[in-house]
Amino acid sequence: MHVPDGFFDLPVSVGAGAVAVAGLAVCLRGARRELDDRTAPMAGLVAAFIFAVQMLNFPVAAGTSGHLLGGALAAILVGPYTAVLCVSVVLLVQGFFFADGGLTALGVNITLMAMVTAIVGWGVFRLITRSAPGSRAVIVAASFVAALVSVPASALVFTLLFWIGGTAPIDVASVAAAMGGVHVLIGIGEGLITSLTVSSVLAVRPDLVYGARGLAKRLVLRTAEGFEAPLVAAPATGEAPVGRIRPLLIGGGLVAILLAGVVSFYASGSPDGLERVAADKGLNAHEEEHGLSDAPLADYGVKGIEDERLSVGLAGVAGVGITVLAGGAVFYTVRRRRRHRAAV
Amino acid sequence: MSAGHHHRLYLPGDTPVHLLPPQCKLVAVAAFAVAVVATPRERLWAFAVHALLLTVVAAVARVPAGFILRRMVIEVPFVLFAVAIPIIGTGARTEVLGMSLSVPGMWAAWNILAKASLGVVASILLAATTEPRAMLLGAERLRLPPLLVQIASFMLRYMDVILDQMRRMRVARESRAFVARDLRQAPVLARSAGALFIRSYERGERVHLAMLSRGYTGEMPITRDLSASGRDWGMAAVLPCLAAATAVLSWSLT
User: Structural domain of residue B173, as residue ranges?
Assistant: First the structure.
């Protein structure tokens, strides 16, 4: 989803460009901390990896296919600063060498696809791993949520910019609903691929995953008799600070339900641009009817309810509910297992 | 989005456009894109002038039209989006061929189509007449942070290697009858991505060690003098100046 020239007016392009330049300056400094003198070759190779992985199309529901944005993945694998740098370099190269994305829209593209995805992804990832630290399963689950959230977040910022200085006369609410809906789906795919990728790297070279630096096993001395003598005293792991994140969880849940239930009321019933694009792009991928198209929530509406707006809103709320339930179940099991292990 | 990425980007040549220092061309193309975006969409003749300017540059640089058209495939997703705007747009409606279309929506679609196409063609001309390595050196001369330029140059240098590795993995997957139908096939793709990351990262470590053993101190040596004379800047300024004049004229003429 590279924004071309002419999609946003000049003030927004210039403003986003200023944000991008400031962000890059911060990240250049931060990346030296993450990678010291290896920055140039390592970040270059990671950028090439991101470029390659963005070509990896994965099939999303209903015959469309999305491709990885890679911001959250890069942040978890190599750290947030390096990730922003790498994805920005990918965008720069795509803009100047491949004519993909307009030159005046470079600031918008860097802000949306490098900064928002990497920063939001890393923030969510840290929030989860800090409140439930210590195991591979937590890191994999956290990468799933981080990547899942990063894609709709980027879509929301796109909508915000569109609201400020978009050149097309389309309802902002319908853009928000369309972008949000499609990108939650893409986000699920992104989350799945990201978490599985992180998991497979963790299995082979856990030392390469920046987000899992705390996972390294402590050095243990074994005497000839088989007694263990720990070299480093194990730090006492305090109880997770649940209280502090509870208001955040409740607030976030309310916002999600509001967005899904209320904003989607204003969604236009006619096929929107992105779905059109998706459908037409899907032609070269897999034109198969999705197996769930008869399901009760198919096509963003609840079957059997005549009022279209109510139906769409209900579907949105139900979607949020299902997502929360599924995510909650995953976390509950993970935490239970961790506590169980700690008890044993 | 990646449809056009497999074409050859650079067309070697010794035309005046090829011989211009890269930093002049970078500034010229960026300024041209700004002038195009600043042109009001109702002035159809101004866009014709912009297009004519690009045609002249392409003719001087001897870049064939077929080459440009093939690489313009990259904007197809947004062309489709632009086509949809008049159908879903708000505002006054009119009847065209039995379909009710929004008038502001049609203007918006034209706006995006024209400006995006002009920008894409300008970028294609830049990439077709400038060696990738020279383009990065030019960017460095324009005070882009050297670290950013180094990252980009490593990315460009190893991109083909990494893409080739990915292609080999795809061949290996498909020769074992793998087809990605839905998200259930994601674990296989993710394992490929994980392996690709480890290979890229380890290659980066090897490259870094190889550079250290050749005396790398954190800066790349400059092997080519890229200074631009006033004449070079003047030549490069022709395109953006004419485009800017067109934009200003289109604002002042009613």
Answer: 145-213
Neighbour-count burial for B111-130, b at 16+ CB within 10 Å, e otherwise: bbbbbbbbbbbbbbbbbbbb
The complex scores an ipTM of 0.84
Answer positive or negative: Cα dihedral of B127, B129, B134, B138: negative
Half-sphere exposure of A206 (CA within 13 A, CB side): 12
Pick out chain A residues at pLDDT < 50.
234, 236-243, 263-294, 296-301, 344
Give domain status of residue A330, yes or no.
yes
Integer Cα distance of A58 and A306 in angstroms = 34
Phi-psi group of B230: left, alpha or beta (phi > 0 → left; psi -120 to 50 → alpha; rest → beta): alpha
CA of A190 vs chain B CAs: smallest distance (Å) = 10
Note whether residue B219 is domain-resident.
Answer: no
CA A56 to chain centre: 16
Q: What is the mean pLDDT of residues B134-147?
A: 84
- Residue A229 forms part of a structural domain: no
Mutate to test the interface with B, among A12, A37, A45, A94 (most CBs of B within 10 A): A45
Instruction: Establish if B218 belongs to a structural domain.
Output: no
| Residue A186 placed within a domain | yes
Sign of the CA dihedral A196, A200, A202, A207? negative
Domain match, B79 and B109 both: yes
Are B40 and B97 members of one domain? yes
Where in the sequence is the domain holding A311, given as residue range(s)? 10-214+240-343
Same-domain pairing of B116 and B194: no
Select the residue of A7, A39, A103 nearest B29 (Cβ to Cβ): A103
User: Is A222 inside any structural domain?
Assistant: no
Q: 3-class secondary structure for B2-69?
A: CCCCCCCCCCCCCCHHHHCCHHHHHHHHHHHHHHHHHCCCCCHHHHHHHHHHHHHHHHHCCCCHHHHH
Is B11 within the bounds of a domain? no
**For A164-184, what is each residue's pLDDT tens digit?**
877 777 777 777 777 777 788
SS3 B96: strand
H or E segment at A208? none
**Closest residue on chain B to A269 (Cα):** B88
Number of domains in chain B: 2
**Any idea what the CATH number is for the domain that residue A311 is in?**
1.10.1760.20
Q: Which residues of B touch A52 (CB under 8 A)?
A: 159, 162-163, 165-166, 196
How many domains does one find in chain A?
A: 1
pLDDT in tens, B90-111: 666 676 666 777 777 788 888 8
